[in-house]
Design brief:
This protein has 406 residues and is an alpha+beta fold. 27% of the residues lie in helices and 22% in strands. A hairpin with a 2-residue loop joins strand 8 and strand 9.
C-alpha cells in the first residue's frame, strides 16, 4: 500500500486512541502523559492539514517532463514500482514500448521512431532488459543517464530486475563472423576497426589491414558465391538480375578514392548525453588531432554504375546530355546485410551522380588490386566518390530508381 505523510501518522493516532480507552499499561499514563497529549495534537493537526490531500503518493518520472541535468533525475525512493508482468505487456508500439535497464523502467516508444538504426531494433527489446543486448552490442555507450533524464517511468524490485535480465533471451548474430586481419579492432558487434589511428596517414594508399571498417549488421556470406550471389536492378521497364560473371563481362574501370565515415568525430550527435555541451567536442577532439579523422584511401576496380543501368534500359547518355529527363530523383542501394529483425541496410544517392560519366560511381570488386575483403563488401560494393562512407553500399543486393530520399 502506498503511504502518504498522513499514513505515516496512523501509528501515533492509534497509540493515542488506545491510551484514552485505558488499554495502555497504567505506568505509562503518568510517565508519558505529556507525550500522548503532544501526539494527539500532532495527529489532529495532521488530519486537519491533510484532509484534502490524495492518499496516493505523487510518484516522479521524467517521461513527458525531461530534465536537463542528471542531478534532477528522481531518486529510486520516489519512483513507482512496476511489476515484471506489466513491463512485459508493453512490448509494442501500440501499447507502448517499455524496457528495463539497471533496474529502471523506461518508455521508449517515441525514441524508437527516431532511432538512427530504425525502430525495429528497439522494438525487438520491448518488454525485456536492455543489458542482454548491450552484452552483445558492447560498443554502444552507456545510455542509462540519457534514459533517466528523458524516458524514466519507474523501477523494478531488485528481484524483478534480476529476473528481467536472466529471462531475456537474445542470440548473438555475430558469432559466425569471418576471420580478419585488422590493425586495430574497436568493436566486434558490429565490427568497427581502424577508425582513429595515426597509421591512417602513414601512406597515401591505406593498406587493407589498416583501412577503416564501420559495419552496421553481421557480414553476409555465401557458400558458393559464384552461383549464389546476385543483385537486382529495378527500373521503369522492369527488373534484371546480375551475377558476378555478368559484371565481369562489362568494361572494367579503376578509380582512386578516399572514403570517410559519415560519423567523422566520435559521437558528436550525442552531445545530449553530456552536461558540457558547449565545450565537449572542442575538448575531446582538438582539430589538430588525428582522432578526428575516420577515413582511408584505396584503389578500386569494377564496373561503372551507369553501364549497368544502361543494360537495364536506362538511357544514361541521353539523360547526361540533357536530352531526356531524369526518370527518378534517386538511386536506392540495398545491401544483403540485415539486422536481427530482417531489415536490410539501405541508402540513396542522387541518380544524377550515378549516371554522370565523370562521377566515377562504380560497382567495385577489387580493392588495392586484391579481391574485395568481406568487411569491405565482398563480392560487390558501390563506390560513390565524394559521398560519406555510409553511402558506399556494401554487399550490394538491389539498385532501384526512386523518388524519395532514404
Amino acid at each position: 500500500m502506498m503511504r502518504t505523510p498522513f499514513a505515516r501518522l496512523a501509528p501515533a493516532v492509534t497509540r493515542v486512541s488506545t491510551q484514552w480507552k485505558g488499554t495502555l499499561p497504567p505506568q505509562s499514563h503518568a510517565k508519558n502523559g505529556w507525550r500522548n497529549a503532544a501526539l494527539l495534537g500532532v495527529a489532529s493537526a495532521g488530519v486537519a492539514g491533510l484532509s484534502f490531500v490524495s492518499c496516493d503518493k505523487p510518484w516522479k518520472q521524467t517521461l513527458g517532463s525531461p530534465v536537463d541535468s542528471n542531478l534532477l533525475v528522481p531518486h529510486d525512493k520516489d519512483l513507482k514500482i512496476i511489476g515484471l508482468e506489466e513491463l512485459r505487456s508493453h512490448n509494442n508500439m501500440e501499447d507502448g514500448l517499455w524496457v528495463s535497464y539497471h533496474g529502471h523502467v523506461y518508455e521508449v516508444t517515441n525514441f524508437a521512431k527516431i532511432h538512427p538504426g530504425g525502430p525495429g531494433r528497439i522494438q525487438m527489446a520491448g518488454g525485456s532488459d536492455l543489458q542482454k543486448y548491450f552484452d552483445v552490442y558492447h560498443v554502444h555507450p552507456d545510455v542509462s543517464k540519457f534514459l533517466d533524464r528523458t524516458c524514466l517511468l519507474g523501477r523494478l524490485t531488485a528481484a524483478d530486475a534480476k529476473r528481467s535480465y536472466e529471462e531475456t533471451i537474445f542470440a548473438n548474430p555475430y558469432e559466425n563472423e569471418p576471420a580478419r586481419n585488422l590493425q586495430q579492432t574497436i568493436a566486434t558487434a558490429p565490427r568497427w576497426a581502424n577508425l582513429m589511428g595515426k597509421y591512417l596517414l602513414e601512406s597515401f594508399r591505406t593498406p587493407i589491414p589498416g583501412f577503416y571498417v564501420r559495419n552496421h549488421f553481421p557480414v553476409p556470406n555465401w557458400e558458393d558465391v559464384e552461383e549464389e550471389y546476385e543483385f537486382e536492378v529495378l527500373t521503369a521497364s522492369g527488373g534484371k538480375s546480375f551475377k558476378l560473371k555478368d559484371l565481369r563481362a562489362l568494361p572494367q574501370i579503376t578509380v582512386e578514392a578516399t572514403m570517410i565515415c559519415g560519423g567523422a568525430a566520435l559521437y558528436p550527435r550525442y552531445l545530449h548525453r553530456t552536461d558540457q555541451r558547449e565545450t565537449w567536442e572542442k575538448e575531446e577532439f582538438p582539430r589538430n588531432e588525428i582522432n578526428n579523422f575516420w577515413g582511408s584511401h584505396a584503389v578500386w576496380t569494377g564496373v561503372k554504375c551507369r553501364d549497368v543501368l544502361r543494360t537495364c534500359g536506362v538511357d544514361v547518355d541521353g539523360i547526361a546530355l540533357g536530352e531526356k529527363p531524369l526518370p527518378a530523383k534517386y538511386l536506392r542501394l540495398t545491401g544483403h546485410d540485415a539486422d536481427e529483425t530482417g531489415s536490410n541496410f539501405g541508402v540513396t544517392i542522387p541518380l544524377e551522380k550515378a549516371i554522370d560519366p565523370f562521377g566515377d560511381v562504380i560497382l567495385a570488386m577489387t580493392m588495392n588490386g586484391e579481391t574485395l575483403p568481406a568487411d569491405h563488401g565482398f563480392p560487390v560494393r558501390v563506390l560513390v566518390p565524394g559521398f560519406a562512407g555510409v553511402r558506399n553500399c556494401k554487399w550490394l543486393a538491389k539498385m532501384e530508381l526512386v523518388g524519395d530520399l532514404h
